[in-house]
Specification:
The protein is mainly β. It contains one helix and 33 strands. Strands 7, 10, 11, 12, 13, 14, 15 and 16 form an eight-stranded antiparallel β-sheet that branches. Strands 2, 3, 4, 5, 6, 8 and 9 form a seven-stranded antiparallel β-sheet that branches. It is globular, with a radius of gyration of 19 Å.
């Protein structure tokens, strides 16, 4: 049985710093932030690139777009360092999400607060060269931050960044890159316009997600399908040597297994699969990717998958109002908990679909899919001690973004892990 963590830091915070992975085209590009709060919040947004500092009062939620002057810097030039960082500060805890869209290319991500960032990361990306390259961006939180990269194949790179500086790396075969730094950093990873699967060269789309620090990674993951589309892939990246990984179907039957070396990754493809579970001998990082298809609503998208140990109880969130989308939240909850007591905007949920997944040596979890409208929402449970996972799927024809909605962590009370990789 999984032991859940208590008295933790959550994704609601008062200080955030981040940047964006480049999109397919800078024309008509709309990078945006979405703010969701339990209470009215006084928020300050600082973007040195624009010489901008804007203060605003947020009554529960807000969605803000950036100007062309900022957009022009998001070109995804390899090894570029520029002051493309965005800082969001609030007088009360808020949840922060980003989207980066043009009319036919979009993705989005939750942004975790500055006090939850780390100094050790491993990157998940999706290999695709038809319309660009894999990419990650590193945003420094303090001046004179030394960053060191070990890429697949053993190539290394170093850079020194000041607060708001962003280092962009853009090339093929980036998944599995290990990043270490002398101070906490934010890491976003994805693709300018990735094909998922790689040989699906007719339907590329922007991919983007926030990478979790290695200190928060775990050994068990649940990956539900991106309702209502059953085709997806997962990329598993291992920061430790001799990491055994097993993947199971909803009944607990073994689908496949592998042994990973430090700094390696592998993509697994699944068609018409309801959900999988992942069990590893050492902590791993997991990203999920939705397939692209012209005749189905939505294009490729990416999200980090948080492990069950990092589920939380309360999610204020916002669904972008830029496009007319159909939206669902996937909820993953331990089966011993009362699923009928899950509350969306204060009302018990009415799932459009539900299923059960059996985690070997752990137990069963319910997976529920609930439709939500564009705009502001809250998701919680009548019992404040019950924690569950939540992933948002926002979809329209040739437009989609996917993000997990939040998490809860404790630096001093996670499952036992091996020593962290050496810094340099």
């Amino acid at each position: 049985m999984i032991t859940f963590i208590s008295d933790n830091k959550v994704h609601l915070g008062t200080s955030f710093i981040f940047s964006y992975v480049s999109n397919y085209s800078n024309r008509r590009l709309t990078p945006a932030i979405m703010i969701a709060s339990r209470d009215t919040a006084e928020v300050t947004i600082t973007i040195p690139k624009l010489e901008l500092q804007e203060k605003l009062t947020v009554d529960k939620y807000a969605e803000l777009n950036f100007t062309n002057d900022f957009i022009s810097g998001l070109k995804g030039i390899d090894r570029r360092i520029d002051n493309l960082g965005v800082e969001v500060v609030s007088d009360t805890p808020i949840a922060l999400y980003t989207t980066n869209t043009i009319s036919k290319s979009a993705d989005g991500s939750v942004i975790i607060p500055e006090d939850m960032l780390g100094t050790h990361y491993i990157v998940n990306t999706h290999f695709s060269e038809e319309s660009g390259y894999e990419e990650f961006v590193i945003t420094a939180t303090t001046d004179n931050t030394l960053v060191h990269l070990i890429m697949p194949g053993g190539e290394t790179d170093t850079a020194t960044l000041n607060r708001f500086d962003v280092l962009t790396r853009r090339r093929s075969y980036m998944s599995g890159t290990i990043i270490t730094s002398s101070s906490p950093i934010n890491v976003q990873a994805g693709h300018k316009c990735g094909n998922v699967p790689t040989d699906n060269d007719n339907h590329c789309d922007h991919l983007s997600t926030e990478i979790l620090p290695i200190k928060y990674l775990q050994k068990t993951y649940i990956v539900p399908y991106m309702y209502p589309r059953g085709n997806f892939s997962v990329d598993i990246a291992a920061p430790y040597d001799q990491t055994s990984v097993s993947i199971y179907d909803t009944e607990g039957n073994l689908l496949e297994s592998d042994i990973f070396s430090k700094g390696t990754s592998k993509i697994y493809l699944y068609e018409n699969v309801a959900a999988i579970s992942i069990s590893a001998s050492k902590p791993v990082h997991v990203s999920q990717f939705g397939f692209g298809a012209w005749n189905k609503s939505g294009d490729p998208s990416q999200t980090t998958i948080p492990p069950p140990q990092l589920y939380t109880n309360y999610y204020p969130f916002m669904v972008s109002e830029v496009y007319d989308t159909t939206n669902y939240v996937g909820i993953i909850i331990y089966r011993l908990y009362d699923v009928e007591a899950i509350l969306l905007d204060g009302q018990r949920v009415s799932p459009v679909e539900s299923l059960v997944i059996n985690l070997p040596c752990t137990g069963e979890f319910n997976i529920l899919y609930v439709e939500v409208s564009n705009g502001y929402h809250t998701l919680t449970h009548e019992n404040p001690g019950v924690k569950f996972g939540a992933i948002l799927y926002s979809r329209a024809r040739r437009y989609e973004y996917v993000t997990y909605l939040g998490l809860e962590v404790n630096d001093g009370d996670t499952v036992e892990v091996p020593d962290e990789p050496e810094v340099y």
